[in-house]
Amino acid sequence: MNQKSSLNRISIYRELFILRTSAELGRSPCRNMRQDFEKLFLHLKPAEPPAGLFDRIILAIKREQELQHKRRLLFGFLFLLVVSLITTPLSLIMLVNQLESSGISYFISTVVSDFGAFLTLWQDFSLAILESFPIAGMLIFTLTLIVSVFTLRLFLYKKRLLLGYLIHDFS
Amino acid sequence: MKTYTDEQLVTNYLKGDEESLEILIKRYLKPIYSFAYRFVGNTQVAEDITQEVFVKAWYNLKKFKQEYKFKTWIFVIAKNTCLDWQKKKRPLPFSVLDNKKEEFSFAENIKDPTPLPNELLERKDLVAVLSKAIETLSAKYRTVLFLRYNEHFTFREIAEILRESIDTIKTRHRRGIAILRKLLKDK
After folding, report:
1. In chain A, which residues touch B (CB < 8 A)?
2. How many domains, chain B?
3. Contact A40 B34 (CB under 8 A)
4. CB contact (8 A) between residue B115 and residue A33
5. Please, what is the average pLDDT of chain A?
6. CATH (domain of B16)
7. What is the pLDDT of residues A13-39, one digit of tens each?
8. B91 in helix, strand or coil?
9. Considering all CA atoms of chain B, what is the largest pairwise distance in Å, rounded to the nearest integer?
10. Which ipTM score applies to this complex?
11. Do residue B79 and residue B106 come from a single domain?
């Protein structure tokens, strides 16, 4: 205990001495120490990065960019695939149901069986057919069909990239 | 040629200017490599860590907040990458912990803000002696001293980088200086 307190006292005297000497010299002790150590660290041989490191970093970033692009493409493709696999059959069923309930088949069978009547009343016929068209169902089906075709096209164009990513990065 | 600040370069890169990223990498290649080298003490590992730091920085560049300093931010990434490497590769042996205890108690009793003696700065073998002394210092002291005197960070910035309180950093700095002083005196 005594030893500890005398050690503390010594260090306090020492600090007071430093502060007094520094004050006499008109400079802050901490600033001097910092400057001295900064000077000292200047002598430390700087670790020079090897010549090819910059190129290696750029290459690694490019590789990472490509990987990110592939990942986005793959997830985009998988999303579109799931969407088109679910929506295309559903929209087809919906369209068929709407066509059956619209009565358009009767108009068409009349046109086929009695073409003469159709020629005479073609304007009324055309209007009736147009009115009974299931526009919403057709639009939805067309959209889902476009998505499916786009997904298929994406796969055909990027199949090597997509399969490569799936095989290499998920195995 | 116009010199851009780090933050301007980040903004430019995010707007699509690829060259800005190259300038940023060139600007920080040496400090980050030096930091990693001082931390791990191996050139090959330091190279790998430097590469990883820049890839991580690129990956998270969109998340970089302009109110922070880029230099501090990238050094945080560097420190974390070094720590990850340390966790993965080097389990800490018990003997090291014992040594740390001795170092701690020794440094505990020293408070020394005195300037360095002139003879030391004038020594011809200063480079070799200093390198050896720095290598002997444990990583936590070495890191603080390196950031303070090589990269000229303030205590607050060092605390931010190392995710420690400012008092811890000041204590580490003081102990590090004391140990370094003793090491230099002994050599």
Report:
1. 7, 11, 14-15, 18, 29-30, 32-41, 43-50, 53-54, 56-58, 60-61, 64
2. 2
3. no
4. yes
5. 78
6. 1.10.1740.10
7. 555 555 454 444 444 555 566 677 777
8. coil
9. 55
10. 0.72
11. no
